[in-house]
Structures are given as C-alpha cells and as structure tokens.
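Quick entry between incubations.
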Amino acid sequence: MYVRIEDLYFGYTKNTHVLHNVSFAMQEGEIVAILGSSGSGKSTLLRLLSGLEMPSKGRIEVNEETLCSANTFVECEKRHVGMVFQDYALFPHMDVIKNIAFGLKHLSKDAKKGRVQAMLKLINMEEKSHAFPHELSGGQQQRIALARALAPSPDILLLDEPFSNLDEDLKTKIRHELRSIMKKTAMTAIFVTHDYDDALDIADRICYLEDGRIVHEEVIKRS
Amino acid sequence: MLSRIRRNINIFSVVSIVAAALIVIPMLNILIEIFNEPTPAWQHIRQNLLTNYIINTTILIGFVAVFSALIGVFGATMVTRYEFKGRRLLSWFLMLPLAMPSYIAAYAYADMVSYTGSLARMFRWLNIPLVINVMNMPGAIFIFTLTLFPYVYMLTRGALSKQSAAFSENARLLGAGKVRTFIRVVLPLLRPALVAGTLLVVLETLNDYGVVAYFNVRVFSFAIFNAFENLGDTPAAIRLSGVLMVMVFIIIAIERFIRGKRRYSMHVKGRPLPRVALKGWQRFILPSLLWVIMVLAFFLPLAQLFYYATLTFTSVFTLSFVYLTINSLTLAVSATLITVLIALMLANYNRGSQNRFKKGLLKVTNLGYAIPGAVIAIAVMIFFIDIDHVLYPIYQFINPNSPRLVLSSTLVMLTFAFVLRFMAIGYNSIEASYDKIGDTFTEASYVLNTSKVKTLLKVDIPLIKHGLISAAIIVFIDVIKELPLTLILRPTNYNTLATEVFRYAREEMLQESAVPALVLILVSSVLIYVLTHYKKKGVPINVR
Ligand SMILES: Nc1ncnc2c1ncn2[C@@H]1O[C@H](COP(=O)(O)OP(=O)(O)O)[C@@H](O)[C@H]1O
Ligand SMILES: [Mg+2]
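Done. Structure below.
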C-alpha cells in the first residue's frame, strides 16, 4: 500500500479527542474523498497528514517512508506533502509565477522556469502568469493554489474543501477539470468535503467521517 | 439639485468642510511664501548649509528608521509568536517608551554619561575605561530609536496577531524552513503595518526639536528654528520647511512606487499561529534582550529622574508649579476633546463613501501629522495674524482701545495648531473602529428614521467607544509632550510641563527639570496602562 494510516488519535486539548482510531490505506494514484459534516474533524485529519499537528497516537506512512509513529515525527517542510487550503492562502504579495515557484527553491533557475511553465500549462492559465492573486477570480485562484501544491511533485496531495468558495454553476466543470488534472499527473490525493456530489464526481473511493471516526467506506464505480 | 445640496448639508459635512478649509489656508500661506523673492539670508543658507542639513537629516532618519523597525518587529514577533516568562508584562511594557518624550531621555542620558553623571561614575568605580559621549549624531540616533520604536512595535504587533496562520503553514508545507518562511512570507505581509509604523517614527524624528537642539545635531528642524528664532528670518524658515515637506513626500512616493500593484492582505480565514514556548538558550537570551531595551529606553532614565526629583522636589514643587501642571493638563484635555470630536465628524462624513471630493477633503485634513510641528507653528501664526488683521474693525467696534492682535499668541491659536497637527491620529483610530463594526447598525437606525445626530449619540458612539478612548489617549499623550509647536505658539509667560522641562534643560538645570519631566511621564504611563488594559465590555467589537 502506498499510503497507510493506522490508529490515529488526536485532540487539540488534553483529554478531548477530535479524531478516534482513524485508519485507512490508499494505492498509488488513488483519489480518496473524506466526506463528513462540518466539525467532524476533516481539516484536522489533513493537518495531521501534512505534519502541521502531531497525533497523540498512531502511525502515518507514505511511499514507504514513516512520517509519524511512536518514535518518529517528520517536520512538515520535509514531508513532500502538497496541500491546497480551504481559502487557498495564495501569497498576496507575489504574482502567479512567484507563487508557483515558491516550493521549487532546490531547482536551478532554468529548471524552475520550465517547471512553472509546465504547471501553468497543466492548469491552462499561461496568460495570467504575471497577475497578482487579488486580480484573479475564485476559480483561477484555486487552480493556482493547485499548481503551487503540485509544482514540487509531492508524494501525496491534500485538498481541503476545494469547492466551498466557488459558485454553484462553476462547480461541475471544475470538478471534472480537477479530476482530469490529478489523473494526468497520476497524483495520489485525499480531499475532504461535506458535499456528496463533490465526492461522487472526483473520488475513486469515499470514506465517511463522523465525529472523528471513519464509519463507512464506499468504492465509486466508473465506466 | 437644490434638494440634493440640502440633503448633503448636515452637521458632519459642515464641520468637515470648515475643518479642511482651516487646515488648507495656513498651508497655502507657506506655499505662497515659497514663490516670493528669496531673502539674502536664504542665499546664505542655500549655498553654505542646505546640503549639510539634507545629509544630516537623511542620516538621522535613515538609521532611526532601520533600528526602530528592527527592534519593533523583534518585540512584536517575540510577544505574538513565543511563550516565555514575563511575556504578558513585556507586551504592554514595550509601549511605555511612548510615555518618555525623546528630549527628556536625551537630557537624562546626556547627564548620566557626563563626567559627574551616574553612569560615568559607575564605570570609573568598576574600572571600566569607558567614556561615552551621546551629544552627537549617534547619540541622537540612539535616543530616537529607543523612544520611538514603540510605534513600529504597536502596529506590527497588531498585524502579526491577526495574520492568518495559513500563509506560514503553506510556506512550510512547500518546504520553506522557519527563516525562509519569516523572510519571504511573514515579513512581507507585515509591510503595510511596518511602513506605517516606521513612517510615524520618521515623522516624529523630523518633528523633534528638543533632542537636536540639545545635542547640536544640525538637521532641518534645528535649521528652521534657528532661522526663525535666532535670525528672525521667517521667509527662510518657510523655505526650509518647504524643502523638508518635499523630502517627506519623496519618501512616501518611493514606498508607493516599490509597492506597485502588490497587495498585502487577502481575505483568508483562519486563526493566527499559536505561540510556541522558547527552548534552550533562547529562553534566556531573547527575553533578556527585550528587558535590556526596556531598561535603556525607560527604566534607566526614569530612575535617574526619580533620583533628581528627590533632590529638587522641595524647591521646584511650588504653588506655581501646581498651577502650571493644571494649565498643561487643561490645555491637553481641551485640545484632545476638540480633536476627537472633529475627527468623529470627519469619520462620519466619510463613512462608506467612495466620493472623490470627500476623499480629497480627508487627505487634506490628515496632512497635519506629516508636517513637522515647527512648520505648522509658523503657518498657523501667519494665519492668525491675518485673521486678526481682518477682524480688527470688529475688535475696535467692541473696544475702541483694542490691541491689533487679539487671537494671535493666545491659547486659541495654540489649541488650533494642536488640533491641526494631531487630527490624523484621532481620525485613523476612529476610522479603524468604524471599519470593524461595519455600517449595518447605523443603517438600521437611519431606516428607523432616527436623526443623524441621535444615531451618532445612541448607536455609533457606544459601539466605537473603545476606538474613541484610544484615540483620545494617544492624542492626549502627543499633545502633552509636544514641544516645537508649543515653544513657538504659546502666549508669553505661558508654560506647559514640556516647555518647563525644556527651559530648565536649556539653563543646564537638569536636576530641576526632573520634577516636571516625571509628572509628564507618569501621567502618560498611566494612560498607556489604561490603553493597553481597557477591556471592551459588552460591546460587540467583532460583529460583521
Ligand atoms: N485550532 C483548534 N483548536 C481547538 N479546537 C479546534 C481547532 N481546530 C478545530 N478545532 C475543533 O476540532 C473539531 C474538528 O474541526 P475541523 O477538523 O476543522 O472540522 P471540519 O474541517 O470537519 O469542519 C471541531 O469541533 C473544532 O471546533
Ligand atoms: Mg474544515
């Protein structure tokens, strides 16, 4: 298994638990949706996977590397995990190119440029490369955030409610777009949502999260 | 059309327009003077001194700006991002240097390091072969940095405590370590607050006269005073003011240019980063640095003043000193009340408006703070002499033996100048509170057919009480320690705490200056305590 999450427990304060005994596994290239209502612990789960929070118990393995266990904890900047935040959090003082290039500091100047161009092409936004975030629409901001997260070729991509800030009529189009981008890059991805239609359109599999517990799993059959 | 005009006339618009006119006219006087034939004294200044003034001023404000920015951001980062013993205390202590006027710190330090001073004696006693001279450019930079950095601290602390954690977290997920995250993301996002705070520091430095006069550092305010008081050459003083104003505008323009079309805020939800506990050596070293700054900026000069005050208390603390204190406080209170009241009218007039005329009016009324006190003083004086000139027939009608100048050189003129200079400070604080509560409550009240004034009294004022109180406190502290304006515009034989400190210092009676200096510092410190500890009870500050 490419991703293995075992027996994860977490609470923001002592003696309270937001997540209980969360376990699941994923194959490489699989897209899993975590579906749950508001406050069920979806964002918290992503924060644990990305290393922004430390679980009180449990184990996380990605691509044969133990990111977190009883005696290891890999810091978030060393995890090769990409994440798209709920409101994108694009850096407002950088233009599109600088935003996407932010995670590529290990590359040479030319390689960086090439990678940024490839990302812009992937999300189909070459013409906006010098725009600043405040000059972009919500949908465009989201695609830039996606490109920024994908640029360093993370082992796994996490998306937090990627559609919650978008207009209803844009959603269907963007859902398909998102799925096609992720499949094109063969990206292993987890995204969380409270909307069943989102999950149905994008995911290969849905995990239902209720009060911090995974209560049910459902495989989506696609023709 | 007429009905539209009538609809637009109300107490807010009338006050705003009159206030703007009263501020513009004196400034125009200065501009006009620049186009007059230059005097021989000006030729002399321009050929022999001007370059020097420009270089000195640039060096002074350059270093003070950089050092205050460093200390201010360091302090703000420490108290918002880290947890350590004494953090809560430091978090408001670091505001206290605002209560220490730069010129008082300058007098105290000059005395402490002089041959007979306490520090110099301590060095000799400890056999440290260290002789410090502060009465020079580096000394001035030291004094201004320590007394003015709280402006940067105050604004960047506010911005940091609101900055969404999402930005830093994103940077770290993209592989940036702590340092890179701070330099590439946290710091750039602080830029508006950092620039605003540093600008305040620069403007206060340009405004100062007490420090540069005592240390004999030849910068612009020194030159303006010299031309005005010693050479009696008002036109030359006005020309110097003009050059100084151009310098200020160039600084602001450069910042705007560098900023370009970038923005520094976006609506991103999320809490600020939680504070993390300092570890290892950092636990002792970093907070100690802050305490050293606090001691140097506040407690050391304060201790010196206390000691001197015990020596001179009986001779200085007379009935006339009590009167002087009361005078000083009364003047500051009335100037503060008028400033805040007009600022409130302006803020109301301008609320939620995109109207160009209103925006222009506002820029004008907020110009005062960008213009050094000495310049405002001269402008206001010319203005009041003109007014007296126009009103003279009326004076004669009332009293045939009336003197020619009635309003000039009265407290009316001085108060007017204070209001003009500090309007921006009051306004900005009130505007920020209005931004926070939004327009819904006021609109609801208008819909219920409540009059504008009644809405202001019953709805707005209770909601923005906190903003009003902080505006009043900051303006009050600024007024009570203001020196250059007061020196030029006060009525003959009228003294305030600030001018009394200045007078003693000029006569080398530093020990005697301690009592008025202490009263000034203590009053301001108490107000800063109130400002930092005032809780908003039952007021929905965060609605929207
Ligand atoms: N930083 C935090 N500190 C304390 N409690 C938190 C914090 N973040 C989230 N919570 C709590 O944890 C629970 C799960 O939150 P979250 O993971 O954000 O849910 P979801 O993303 O599914 O809406 C909620 O009850 C929320 O109030
Ligand atoms: Mg969430």
